[in-house]
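Hey, sorry to bother you again with one of my protein questions. A protein chain has come my way and I'm curious about its shape. I'm sending you its amino acid sequence along with the backbone structure tokens. I owe you a coffee for this, so here goes:
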Amino acid sequence: MNSLAVITRANFLPLTVVIVSAGLAASFYAYRVFNPIDAALVLTGALLTHAAVNVFNNYFDYRSRIDERTTKTPFSGGVDILVEGKMTPSFAFAVGLLCLLGASVIGAYFLAEKFYPLFPILVYGLLAICLYTPVLSRVHALSEIVAGSGFGFMGLGAYVTQTGVIDGTGISVFVPVTILVALLLFLNEFPDAEADKMSGRRHVVILLGKKRSAWLYVAGLAATYASILLAVVSGVAPLAVLVSFVTTPIAYKAGRIALKNYGQIPGLVPALALNVIVILSTILLTAVGFLIGVYV
């Protein structure tokens, strides 16, 4: 069981919980709808999807030997379970397929109920899962976009399973989640940049260099809060979602550390930790804000 937790990167799965929670909270705010069975199913499907992504990423990184070259931190560099022979690659691949199969069954259930607009969201997710590590991560500057939008669509998909529509409120979940998850991957790429480049990847940190990428990270944090503020000003999200701005001091500190220590891994690790806190807390507080907006 411990090996399964490692290969699926179970410690990263709370990200899925808060993203789905934000989508469900937004749907309840906008339409006062909540189907607990569908909510449980979409959360289960999202967790299986995230687990499949993590397993396939570990599998293909092992095949390309990236995991042998990366400097491991608690937030980046992958895991050594395959490199150390504690699990066979074929078993890991089978775990990923089973997770994907389970998610597909749940996806088929929702398609039978709400084919459009769920169909393009689910197709995008399937392609991202299957092609991300072996293909899409090697396309210039595409890694962060695919990862961010994939999880953004997870939040939007949770919203659609309850409401059956894509509208401004659903987009107000999609945009900040997309930016934040892109930033999660983006900052985690700093320690792995040299190993990734040797393996043929072409993400933004490699293309821009670490110094300019650090400034881009700060700009991304600012864009996150700007998107939330814009959603409130445009009337598609309640004023209460501004509670998510509580995380701005943590984001500021993460940005300062990144700008100062972009070139040294030990000095950057605190920023990686703060980045995770910012992302999880901001999305969770956005969900709380939508729920408060129902009653205020």
In short: The chain is about 75% helix and 0% strand. The domain at 2-295 is CATH 1.10.600 (Farnesyl Diphosphate Synthase). The chain has one domain: 2-295.
